[in-house]
Amino acid sequence: MGKPKAPIWIDLFDPNEDERRCAAEITGLRVPERSDIVNLALSSRIRTDDDAMYLSIPYFADTDNGHYPGPVGIVVTNHVLMTLRFAESPAFKLASDSCHEHRWESSADVLATLIEAIVNLSAQRMEDVSAELKKLSDRVFTPERLGTPLLRDIMLEIGRLEGLQARNRSSMLGVQRIVSFVRAKKPEWMSDNVEVRLRVVDHDLRTLDEFDDQLTNKLQFLLDATLGFISTDQNHVMKVLTVASVATIPPIILAGIWGMNFKDMPELNMPYGYPIALGVIILSTLLPVWFFKWRGWWSGD
After folding, report:
1. Nearest residue to 42 via CA among 59, 29, 55, 60
2. Would you call 73 helix, strand, or coil by DSSP?
3. Superkingdom, according to UniProt (predicted)?
C-alpha cells in the first residue's frame, strides 16, 4: 500500500507515538517533541528547516479555565500545515469550522485562518476583561463606605482578572513573533493575499498590545485604589479607638489618685457585692467587644 495522500491540515491533539509516526509518514516531516516547543531559545522555537517552517507558542492559553498555559507547535510547508497541541482550544475549533464557509487554497491560507482565529478570540477575551473592569470600578468608586472584607474580595477579583490578562498576553507574544517571522521570511509559496492578511493581523496585534497596556494600567489603578480604601477604613477604626482610649484616661488618672479609700462604701456591706463587682468587670469587657463586632471592625480580620 502506498503512502496516503496528505491533507492540507493535520491537527495533532496530545498525540501518542502511533499518531506521531502516522503524521510523519503522511507529511514526510519531523513531528516536534514537546521539549522542542517549550525551548526557551528563540532560535529553537522559530526556525526554518529546508522548505518547512517550525513555529511554536510556548505559553498558549486559549481558555479561561485557569489551567497552566500549554505549548503549541506549528509546522508549515507549501503543501501542508501540521499543528501540535496538548489542550482544548476554541481558536482551533473556530478555524476548523471556517472551512465550511471558506475553501482553503493552500497551507499558508490555513495558517492565516488559524492565526486570525487566535487573535480574534484573544481580542474578545480582552473585551471581556475590560467589561469586568468597568463593573469592578463601579463597585470600588461608590459613595457608600465599603468595609475591609468587601474590599478584600475586590482585590481577589482584581488578581483573577490580572491572571487572565497575563495568560492572554503570553499567547499574544508568541503569535506576534510567529507573524513577524513569517512575514520576514515570506516563502515563495505564500500568496500575496495571505501576506496582506498577515499584515492586517500584525497591525491588530500592535493595537491589542496598546489595549493590553491600558488594561494593565487600569488593573494597577484599581488595586492601588482598593488598598487606599482599606487603609482609610483602618485609619477610621484606629481614630475611633484612639478617641475611646483618650476619653478613658481622665477617669483612670482620678481613680489612681483617689483610689477607693472612702469611709462609707455601701458595696462593702452587700452580701453579693463581690460577685456583682466581678460581673460588672466582665460586662465592661464584653460590651466594647460586642460594640466592635456590631460596627464590623473585626469582620474578616
Report:
1. 55
2. strand
3. Bacteria
* The three cell numbers locating residue 276: 456583682
| Residue with the three cell numbers 507558542 | 57
Which residues are paired to 47 by β-bridges? 54
Strands (E), 27-90: 47-49, 52-60, 70-76, 81-85
- The confidence band for 2, taking pLDDT boundaries of 50, 70 and 90, is very low
Q: How many CB atoms lie within 10 A of CB 125?
A: 20
Query: Contact, 110 vs 79, CB < 8 A?
Result: no
**Structure-block grid coordinates of residue 265:** 462604701
Query: Residue 153 CB: number of other CB atoms within 10 A?
Result: 14
The DSSP element (H or E) to which 163 belongs, if any, is helix 148-185
d(CA 74, CA 197): 18
The torsion defined by the Cα of 27, 29, 35 and 41, in degrees rounded to 10, comes to: -130
Q: What letters, b where the CB count within 10 A reaches 16 and e where it falls short, cover 159-184?
A: eebbebbebbbebbbbbbbbbebbee
Residues 181/56, Cβ–Cβ less than 8 Å: no
Q: pTM of the prediction?
A: 0.76
- Is 277 a residue whose pLDDT tops 80? no
Residue 288 to residue 295: CA distance in whole angstroms? 10
- How is residue 272 annotated by DSSP? T
pLDDT tens column, 5-20: 568 999 999 888 999 9
Q: Return the closest-CA partner of residue 73 out of 86, 59, 57.
A: 57
pLDDT above 70 as % of the chain:
86
